[in-house]
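Continuing from the previous page of notes. For each protein in this section, the sequence appears first, followed by its structure tokens. Read the first protein now.
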Amino acid sequence: MLNNQGRPSRPDTAAASEAATFTGNKALQIEEGLLFEIGQREVTGIDLPEAPVAKSRLGNHGRKTEIGLPGLSEPETMRHYVRLSRQNHAIDLGLYPLGSCTMKHNPRLNERMARLPGFADIHPLQPASTVKGAVDLMADLSHWLLEMTGMETVALSPKAGAHGELCGMVAIRAAIEARGETRGSVLVPESAHGTNPATAALLGYKVIPVPARADGTVDPAAVKERLSSDVAAIMLTNPNTCGLFERDVVEIAEAVHAAGAFFYGDGANFNAIVGKVRPGDLGVDAMHINLHKTFSTPHGGGGPGAGPVVLSKALAPFAPLPFLRRGEGGPVLVETAEATQDGERPFGRLTAFHGQMGMYTRALAYMLSHGADGLKQASEDAVLNANYVRARLSDLFHAPYGDRPCMHEALFDDHSFEGTEITTLDFAKALIDEGYHPMTMYFPLVVHGAMLIEPTESESRASLDLFIAAMRDLMMRAKAGEVEHFRAAPRFAPRRRLDETRAARQPKLAWSEPAPAAAAE
């Protein structure tokens, strides 16, 4: 079998046929070096006073050598990072079809709200009496998250999805221990997100996989076969990673509860069902919500992520510190175990502070500007767009689960390339030349050579039509036998196709100054 991953990083003859330039730049596509290649370690970009001599508190962990950072002026620093940003794809540049991770437009109204001084300039160590507005905002956000999910309480402190999974599973473990039991295994469907089994394993649970049916969903009978008094929970993604709604979710939840276990719902795909389905009504006991997916806040670009966890009545007492209590005079921020009351049994502290205030502000602004009808329409439009992509590509691309309508993302596999010598990776690299970030490749693992496409509700029909036309053109070129077009791609990216497998297995984590070039004779 040919290894199609390793490729020279230099431009090939097709891309280098244009006249070379002295600088190596191509018009405004500027060749950018590393900071160490641009700056000088002997100087700094600004004048600093000599640091006072102080006794180190690091002991043997203190640095023994100079740190060796390059010094750059402010213009040099700005230019470096702006140039690098031009080499990245972003939702503000074009459609971002990444399946399994909702990449939707971030309304600028949200950004303006997040920059209000009363939210942007507060500090985690300020007295609670000076941040009443922020606490009230957190309470409002909590209220609407509970309203949309049908749950009892919410832990706002988790920083992202996997952090939220950890929070929910620790709460489940605390609830089981509170009733004097010890359980050692967790059921995880093969169609779940990869962080689910990782989280369970991190907490010491044995992971028991649950296979998917031929139609891509979980069979309640398969769950019941694996339930026992040792099972603490099931971790199920709904809609699942195949882009399908688990139609037997209520029966699965009832079976899990009958066995004394809990139902953890992965909420990464909540964008498909907001305003349509309340997870609490389906039997979910804990679920994280990626604010930076469902409610539009940036994926890390505007600060840390946010993965609040909603908890059922059975798990609510075990929500971690710090948490909000609904008091008669308004919400109260409970920060220590000494401040808890009867019925509150927090499992501990998951993180030091609610450090992602900007994410809360953006998410609440998104909710309030859309309203209940707008949030429902966003979900419906996300599903509509995904099904539009699926329908328009179904005659050329192979869908592993037939003509069944999908939810928020359309799934195809590498049966689409039979007889062409083209792989999913080759196709994705050619898509870069068309100006698109590739769809999710090779995931979910239950589908061979998977191509997972999530257009979200942000895209107009015109932008979808152009993307679909590019996909169709590439597939027709593949079926026409234009193998080299795909093997050489991408031609027009700042860097050619790299050996990504080798880079992951043999990373170079330190920069070494290259040897001086030999003088020309």
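Done with the first. The second protein uses the same format. Note its length before scrolling.
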Amino acid sequence: MNNGDSGRRVIDGRFRLEARLGGGGMGTVWRATDLALHRNVAVKEVRPPDIDLAEYDPQGARLLRERVLREARALARIDHPNVVTIHHIVDGGEGTYPWIVMELVGGGSLADRLERGPTDPVETARIGREVLAALRAAHDAGIQHRDVKPANVLLRPDGRPVLTDFGIAAIRESTALTATGSIIGTPDYMAPERIAGDDGGPASDLWSLAMMLYAAVEGHHPLRRGTTMATLAAVLYENVPPPRKAGPLADALMRVLVRDPQARPDAGTFDRMLTAVSAGAGVGTSAGVAAAPGEAVADAVPAARTEPTSYRLTPPQDAVPRSPGPAPVRPARRGRRAAVALSAVGTVLVGVLAWTLLPDSEGSGSSASGDSTNGATADPSADTSSTGTADKSPTPRRTERKTPTNLLTPDGIRTAVKALEKETGRDRYGNLTVYPEYVSAQVMVEGSRTGYQQYTYYVGRGVQETPIKAQLAGGAQPMTLDGLAWDRLPALLAEAEKKLNVDDATTRYLVVKSPNDLFDRGAEMLVYLSDEYNRSGYLQADARGKVTRVTPAD
């Protein structure tokens, strides 16, 4: 209903909306006035981007409603000064979307603060301690936050942080609400095990907190890349570079930012490390940490493991990844059929992020240039024997080539494509993404112009099928790869090195984008370079390898 005097919308006859404060994947937050108590409040309007969701996907609409109510109940269970307070829930019942009335935190978010520049190590440690206190209260209540990031840390006018937006919190007794294999959260700050499809635990929230503090004190995110998929790959397979501006905070951050959650310090130990920094005592660089006043914490922190841990990716069945991807369509060969799941709305609604490019490797597999020596060995079937000396009749040598160990080459791509087409019996694609260690492809379902299934080719292990089944969207058209000028790749990489303003690139990859009839665009090849400080640029070329656009790093 509307207030007759102001014309502004009034919710539940009591909360008058004043101004929009922000929005996200699950709705919009408003500054509002509580007309009954004459105070300012924040009201979260939970509404999907698609207002017709309830008509064509009632199950998705119900899931959204249940998730929001779960957020409110989760927050109501936590009584802590660093957790936003819930005042009221407006629930119109089945078929409606609820509103959550919360305390209004007036100092903006940590993301707003960081737009003005990085924080110093002592301030960062202080913020970290208070956010950690909020997380510990949530963990004690059986709740994992799952989306710790600067935008979800609000600041009171005196600078004290308040953790908010538990909308994707995983309450232990309500895990059935999360689709099997779904990945929810902001990819930049997600722990590797959560990206890989594991439920994670309190240690995963600690990773997210440490990554947030790293970005705050350094002024950049160490693993953010040019695309979401590249960022996810970096989180899973690249080591976090040591911070340069963190001073005494550096050791605490690096002890938490290790891939193996079992090797991370627990919340109590992390708190003692942050306390030492915020008190000006510093943190040791050996096995122990400098104690906060009155505490002895030497040898409290386990040594950080440097060897990478690999996780199996279990993506959701109903998420629709973005479809970059290239070339004219010709009839597909016969092959295995794959069912197509058409539930894209789940991704739009609850921020479920599915990604299937990542290899289930025993090594880090993240070297960006040259031959990979970690998880990128020659095909076991290749001939590695030499002529025996005991037998006078020489053994005939095989003439076939060994499997390339660097797939970001013309021969490497041809090898991967040949293996993909042999395994699937199909030769039409959506997008194709090539890293030195693996090639990920959206292979079209036979007889369909939109449905695809994800496959990945790994050096030494061949083709592996993933559970993802989805559709091309946004005008993207299926393509064959026969017309792509793979031999132009070395020249494109060389030109990228000269023109993209990325002097010390740590990541190199190729994205082949399919034709798009909506934008009247043909197949394209995009070469990306990025460095350890997330400076990224790309070079765009047509299917023949002619450069059409150069976008250097800032």
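What the second structure shows: The mean pLDDT is 74. Residues 345-379+402-551 form one domain. We return to this in next week's lecture.
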